[in-house]
Every structure is written in structure tokens, then in C-alpha cells.
């Protein structure tokens, strides 16, 4: 006989679905089935059960092989690395709980580290733009109940946030949107014919790297100023038509993703999109929201924000918080040899950073804290396996609209495996001892 | 005018933050006192003397002090930060934040500068004989008041985002620039004697941009006004005047809307 756990939070993407049902064996050790989750979310739960999972820390040997060590040795190695380093980089933080992030920041303050999260190669440019011009945003619930003009700009939720459209943005029947998708006009801006673009009422196949011009053109159209014949490959008439569609809505929302944050113009694209949102509020109600990727990257920004005042790339090396993307962002630091140790938790830079940065990580003293074997764990000097947050341990997470949701524990972690919070707490204590001269 | 010569003898293993290298800090100090000034490498505080050979002494005031920096300083940040008077000559390529928040005096770099040179500049004269990196004369992150005064002259090329949130002063680039020139600009003047690929004057509220070479893709919010003869940086030429960015807010002065001006050389 197995039992069912309801209202489980999905620790995969920033949509942070909170309606999963997980069937667990009676002894609470094995996940048997998952309902309501998308394919990726379900896989995240099932992966925790995969055979051959690493349950002991592993230290890299001179010949490149890995030898199992105890958690005590791992804690000591990590604390000593922080103690010796003069400017360590602490990267990741997006796939763990806010509680773990907070303890990590304590270690960062003591060791003069730079704390950077995955926003650095993702929505970091959004955060720069928000700092420059502010952001009029809302919650996903408001979108479900009110929004009738939906723009997906440079994002593909069909694949990256699979339940986003069915739970919030396109299909749900909300309080003021009782006809579901029939109430809504969907506009997609993407150079590719993505699956999201195929569903759209209007698909702007923008020229690559010309989003800034197109956003500017929409703002010009709203002001009834003259436009050139085509902007970014889109005819003037189409731009004016869509501007009218946006103005005629009751509540609009711009969702945007990597297509604008990491293409030419970067933060300026978001800056222009936010200003377009502001302009549209002259005619109707409009909001804008980044499609955050990892389930708790928003939380990392929140915790860094309330502790140090900046949402990512926080440099604590001089004892006070500084922040300047371009200088204190992970890839710039690695590329320019500005750091002398790397600590990775809850992310996989080995798979996502440019190879020039990955090579630098491989040469530096490095620790990777991750439940999986990843490209990062394979180049780090020490790999520490931990329990899955949201599957084997609970913790606070922030949804993409900055709503905090407590993730729930579903099954027990494998015997002896520490959680992020436990491991970091022990490193923090050991670092205190080292600083105290013990 | 007294001259202090700094010659680098030990390279930092990380990067050196040497915001103490200004005429203001060096004035009235002997070589030994200058060598005892702070410099930071990572979380540790050291002295300038650990990295530089110091000779000469500072003048009575900042205005009487000239600093010559010799050797490979490509791992030294913040030279000339917040300087108010006097002179600095850097013979090689300094790293980031050279002349950041500069308020007065003269700063000459004979090589290239990295990013964030002259950010938030308020006054003085900053000459770069080589190339400049990104964010030249831009605002610091999150600040809506960028460069407010002074002159930056780059003999080579400049990177992207020059004059971001610029409010006043002049930036002259003899070569080409990368994308985003004068984004969010509200005042001041940018003169580019080479080409600027695209996104010139995006979200521009006021101020003037001159481009002598070509722009590959114009921003959609610029409308042609007229041709005009102008004297720019000491030479006369014919320009086409555009008003913009029409997608951005614009204040009114004496009943007239004030636009940013983009001059394209004919």
C-alpha cells in the first residue's frame, strides 16, 4: 500500500507549480508515481531515485580519478579553501533553498568572496535594467484572472516552462477571463518558428539582435510619430497594428526570456521593454515579468538583495558589498583571472559557461556541491553530494513573480547524505574555527 | 610642479585596487609616505610600496603634483579615481575604472584603457592615446546621472555603451565605436569620427551626437530635420540633423519640445 502526498512544489523551473501529487511507498523512501507535473518536473523527482547515485563526497586524485572521502574531510577541505583564498568565487545558488543561500552568504562575508548566481548568464541583464528604470510587475495570479494581451518576447514557454501557459498565461479561465484562451490575444516575438510562436495570433519574426529597435518602434508607434518602412524586418503597418492591439486590451503582460536578455543590447532590450510597459500604462493596464529559469534563482536575488543590496555578482572582498556586472560577474572574473578559488552550489557552470571559463575553474581550487555528477563535479577538486531540495528536504523558494513558496519534503534522502543547509553550516563552523586559530 | 614616478616592480597575483594613486593623495607627501598608502588585492590590504618603486615627492597641493606611472599596469584598477587637480601620465595600459568619477586635472593614458574609464566624470581632461573599452564616460550601475562634465578624448576606438546616461561634458572618439552610443543621454556631446554600427542615441532625451562615418542601422525614432553647416572640434563640415528619440519622453522648454540631436556628416 502506498500513500499520496498532495500539493507538492515542483523544484524545476521558475513557474514553481504547487499542485503536484507524488505517490510514495509506505516506508517513505521510494517515489512510485507523479501526477500533474510536466515531463521535466517528473524527471526531476524520478532522477532522485536513479541507481548509482553518489552518496559520499569524492576528492579528485592527481591522476584525475576520484576517491571517496568522509563528509568531515569534505567540510575541512572546503573551509580551508575559503580560509586560504583571498578572493573566492561562490557561484550557483539557484537550485537550493533560501535558507542555504543565507548560510552561504555568511561564509562569503567571512572569506571576502564574490557571490554570483545563475542570473549572470541568464536574467542578470534584467536586474541591471530594473535598477536603471524600475519595473511595473504583478503576480501570476493576476495574469490568470485578468490578462487579455500576452506577449512572449524571446522566450519559448512550451519547452522551457511547460505548464506556464496552462496554469497562468494562455489557457486558464480566470475571474475576468472566463473564456480562457479565447479571451486572450497572444503575440510572440522570436526569430525562430518555435512551438510557442506557432500558437500566436501575431508572430513577429524579428531580425536577430534587433529587438531593441523593434521595442523602440512600438514606443514610437504609441506616440503617433513617423516610423521607417520596416523595423527589424517587420513592416511598419504590422507594428502599428500590434500597438493598437496592445492599447485595446484591458490588462497586458510582457513575458521575456533569454532571446532578449542575452542577445545584442542585453540590458538595454529590457530597459526598452520596461519603458514600453510604462508607456502602455497611459492607455491600459500593463505589466512585465521575466521568465526566470531555475526554481529559486529569484530567491537568490531576493536573499542577496535584502542582505547586501544587490541581486547578483556581489563582491564582498573589501568587506563591503560592491556590484558591477562586467567586472564582478563570474565569467569576467574567471576570464580575467580575478579569483583564486571557486565554490559551486546548485548550478552547473561546467555545462553552461564558455570553455575558457571552465578551463579556469579546472585549474583553481574548486568545490562542487551537487546531488548529481555533472560536468562541473568532474572538473572540481571536491564533489560533495547533497539531498535534493524540494524532493528530499524542504526549504523556501521564490517563484518568478517574487512570491515565496515553501517547498516540501517528499521522501528521505539516502542514508548519511547531508542537505545543503547542513553541509554549509558545518563549513561555516569549521571556517570560524580556522579564523579563530584552531 | 613636482613629479612622482611610480614604476611597477611586483605584479599582483589577483588585481590591484589602487584608488590612492591620485594627485590629491600624493600632494604634500614624501616618497616613503606615498609608498605607505593603501592598496588592496583581494581581501588583503597592502601598501603601494609593495608593488611600486616610488621616486620623487608630491607638490604642496594636488594642482602642483604630477604622477607618472611606468611599467605594465594591466592588472591595476582605479588609477586617478576621483582626482580633482594635478596631472597623471600612464605610459602603459591600465585596467578598469581609470579616471572614474574624475573631477578635475589632466589624465593622459598612452596605451589602452579597459572598461568603465571615466565613469561618472564631472570635470577635467582625460586623453587616451590607444583604445578605450566599454562603458567609457558612462553612469555607474543604477545611477541615472552619468558623465556630467569634462572632456574625454580617445585617439583610437571605443567599446560599447559609451556615454550611457550622459548629462554633460564631451566625449570625442577619433576611431570607431561599438553599439549603444549615448543611450538614455540627457545632455552633453559625443563626437565619433569613425563609424558607429547601430543603436546610436537609443532612448535619447537631449544632448548631441555627431557621427562622421556611417551608421549601419538607425534607430527607428529619429526623424530628419535639415542639413546644416557646423564647426565641430575645430573643423567645419556639413551635417544632416535628426531629432530623436521620438519614442522617448521629451521635456518642453519655452513651449518647444526639446529633442536629442543626431548629426550625421554628409
Q: Helices and strands in order, then pairings?
A:
The complex is a heterodimer of chains A (438) and B (266).
Chain A: E1 3-8, E2 20-24, E3 31-35, H1 39-47, E4 58-60, E5 66-68, H2 71-84, E6 88-92, H3 98-111, E7 114-117, H4 124-133, H5 140-146, E8 149-153, H6 157-160, H7 164-169, E9 185-189, H8 195-198, E10 202-204, H9 211-222, E11 230-231, E12 234-235, H10 236-248, E13 251-256, H11 258-261, H12 267-280, E14 285-290, H13 297-308, E15 314-315, E16 322-323, H14 330-335, E17 341-345, H15 349-352, H16 355-363, E18 366-369, H17 375-379, E19 382-384, E20 395-398, E21 404-407, H18 420-435
Chain B: E1 2-8, E2 16-17, H1 23-26, H2 31-35, E3 38-41, E4 44-47, H3 48-51, E5 52-55, E6 65-70, E7 76-77, E8 87-90, E9 106-109, E10 125-128, E11 151-154, E12 170-173, E13 189-192, E14 196-198, E15 208-211, E16 215-217, E17 223-232, E18 235-244, E19 252-253, E20 256-257, E21 260-265
Parallel strand pairs in B: 1-6, 2-7, 6-8, 8-9, 9-10, 10-11, 11-12, 12-13, 13-15, 14-16, 15-21
Antiparallel strand pairs in B: 1-5, 2-3, 3-4, 17-18, 18-21, 19-20
Description:
The complex is a heterodimer of chains A (438) and B (266). Chain A is built from 18 helices and 21 strands. With 438 residues, chain A is α/β, with parallel strands linked by helices. Chain A folds into three domains: 3-47; 58-122 and 295-435, Rossmann fold, CATH 3.40.50; 124-290, Dimethylsulfoxide Reductase, domain 2. In chain A, the strands form five sheets. A nine-stranded mixed beta sheet of chain A has the order 5-4-19-18-17-6-7-15-16, sandwiched between helices. In chain A, strand 20 (395-398) and strand 21 form a beta hairpin. The longest helix of chain A has 16 residues, at 420-435. Chain A starts with a strand and ends with a helix. The mean pLDDT of chain A is 95. Chain B has 266 residues and is mainly β. Chain B has a domain at 112-265. Chain B contains three helices and 21 strands. Chain B has a 13-stranded mixed beta sheet with strand order 5-1-6-8-9-10-11-12-13-15-21-18-17. In chain B, strands 4-3-2-7 form a four-stranded mixed beta sheet. In chain B, strands 14-16 form a two-stranded parallel ribbon. Chains A and B meet through helix 4, helix 9 and helix 12 of A and loops of B.
Amino acid at each position: 500500500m502506498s500513500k499520496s502526498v498532495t500539493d507538492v512544489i515542483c523544484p524545476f523551473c521558475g513557474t514553481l507549480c504547487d499542485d503536484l501529487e507524488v505517490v510514495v511507498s509506505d516506508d517513505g523512501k521510494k517515489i512510485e508515481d507523479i501526477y500533474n507535473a510536466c515531463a521535466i518536473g517528473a524527471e526531476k523527482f524520478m532522477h532522485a531515485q536513479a541507481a548509482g547515485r553518489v552518496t559520499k563526497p569524492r576528492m579528485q586524485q592527481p591522476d584525475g580519478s576520484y576517491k571517496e572521502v568522509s563528509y568531515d574531510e569534505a567540510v575541512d577541505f572546503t573551509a580551508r579553501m575559503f580560509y586560504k583564498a583571498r578572493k573566492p568565487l561562490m557561484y550557483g545558488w539557484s537550485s537550493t533553498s533560501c535558507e542555504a543561500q543565507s548560510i552561504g552568504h555568511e561564509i562569503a562575508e567571512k572569506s571576502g568572496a564574490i557571490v554570483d548566481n545563475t542570473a549572470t548568464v541568464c536574467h542578470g541583464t534584467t536586474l541591471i535594467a530594473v535598477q536603471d528604470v524600475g519595473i511595473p510587475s504583478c503576480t501570476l495570479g493576476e495574469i490568470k484572472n485578468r490578462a487579455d494581451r500576452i506577449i512572449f518576447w524571446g522566450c519559448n514557454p512550451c519547452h522551457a516552462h511547460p505548464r506556464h501557459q496552462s496554469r497562468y498565461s494562455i489557457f486558464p479561465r480566470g475571474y475576468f477571463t472566463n473564456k480562457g484562451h479565447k479571451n486572450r490575444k497572444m503575440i510572440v516575438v522570436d526569430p525562430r518558428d518555435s512551438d510557442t510562436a506557432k500558437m500566436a495570433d501575431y508572430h513577429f519574426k524579428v531580425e536577430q539582435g534587433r529587438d531593441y529597435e523593434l521595442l523602440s518602434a512600438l514606443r514610437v508607434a504609441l506616440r503617433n510619430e513617423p516610423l521607417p518602412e520596416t523595423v527589424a524586418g517587420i513592416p511598419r503597418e504590422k507594428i502599428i497594428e500590434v500597438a493598437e492591439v496592445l492599447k485595446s486590451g484591458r490588462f497586458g503582460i510582457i513575458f521575456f526570456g533569454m532571446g532578449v536578455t542575452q542577445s545584442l543590447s542585453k540590458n538595454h532590450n529590457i530597459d526598452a521593454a520596461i519603458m514600453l510597459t510604462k508607456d502602455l500604462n497611459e492607455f491600459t493596464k500593463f505589466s512585465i515579468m521575466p521568465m526566470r529559469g531555475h526554481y529559486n534563482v529569484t530567491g537568490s536575488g531576493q536573499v542577496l538583495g535584502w542582505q547586501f543590496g544587490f541581486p547578483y555578482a556581489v563582491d564582498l572582498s573589501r568587506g563591503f558589498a560592491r556590484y558591477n556586472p562586467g567586472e564582478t560577474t563570474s565569467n569576467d572574473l574567471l576570464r580575467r583571472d580575478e579569483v583564486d578559488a571557486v565554490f559551486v552550489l546548485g548550478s552547473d557552470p561546467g555545462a553552461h559557461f564558455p570553455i575558457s571559463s571552465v578551463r579556469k575553474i579546472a585549474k583553481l581550487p574548486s568545490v562542487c556541491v551537487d546531488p548529481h555528477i555533472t560536468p562541473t563535479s568532474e572538473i572540481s577538486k571536491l564533489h560533495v553530494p547533497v539531498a535534493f531540495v524540494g524532493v528530499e528536504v524542504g526549504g523556501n523558494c521564490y517563484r518568478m513573480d517574487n512570491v515565496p513558496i515553501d517547498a516540501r519534503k517528499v521522501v528521505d534522502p539516502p542514508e548519511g547524505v547531508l542537505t545543503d543547509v547542513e553541509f554549509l553550516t558545518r563549513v561555516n563552523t569549521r571556517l570560524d574555527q580556522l579564523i579563530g586559530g584552531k | 610642479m613636482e613629479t612622482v614616478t611610480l614604476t611597477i616592480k611586483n605584479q599582483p597575483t589577483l588585481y590591484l585596487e589602487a584608488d590612492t594613486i591620485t594627485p590629491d593623495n600624493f600632494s604634500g607627501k614624501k616618497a616613503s609616505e606615498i609608498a605607505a598608502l593603501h592598496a588592496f588585492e583581494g581581501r588583503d590590504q597592502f601598501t603601494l610600496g609593495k608593488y611600486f618603486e616610488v621616486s620623487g615627492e608630491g607638490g604642496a597641493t594636488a594642482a602642483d603634483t604630477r604622477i607618472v606611472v611606468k611599467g605594465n599596469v594591466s592588472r591595476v584598477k582605479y588609477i586617478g579615481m576621483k582626482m580633482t587637480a594635478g596631472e597623471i601620465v600612464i605610459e602603459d595600459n591600465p585596467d578598469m575604472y581609470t579616471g572614474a568619477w574624475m573631477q578635475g586635472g589632466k589624465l593622459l593614458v598612452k596605451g589602452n584603457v579597459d572598461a568603465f574609464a571615466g565613469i561618472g566624470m564631472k570635470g577635467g581632461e582625460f586623453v587616451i592615446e590607444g583604445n578605450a573599452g566599454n562603458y567609457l564616460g558612462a553612469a555607474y550601475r543604477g545611477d541615472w546621472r552619468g558623465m556630467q562634465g569634462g572632456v574625454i578624448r580617445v585617439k583610437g576606438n571605443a567599446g560599447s555603451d559609451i556615454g550611457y546616461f550622459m548629462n554633460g561634458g564631451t566625449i570625442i572618439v577619433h576611431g570607431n565605436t561599438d553599439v549603444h552610443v549615448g543611450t538614455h543621454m540627457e545632455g552633453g556631446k559625443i563626437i565619433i569620427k569613425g563609424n558607429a554600427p547601430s543603436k546610436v542615441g537609443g532612448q535619447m532625451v537631449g544632448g548631441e551626437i555627431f557621427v562622421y562615418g556611417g551608421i549601419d542601422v538607425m534607430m527607428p525614432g529619429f526623424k530628419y530635420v535639415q542639413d546644416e553647416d557646423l564647426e565641430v572640434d575645430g573643423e567645419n563640415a556639413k551635417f544632416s540633423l535628426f531629432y530623436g528619440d521620438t519614442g522617448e519622453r521629451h521635456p518642453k522648454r519655452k513651449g518647444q519640445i526639446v529633442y536629442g540631436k543626431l548629426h550625421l556628416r554628409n
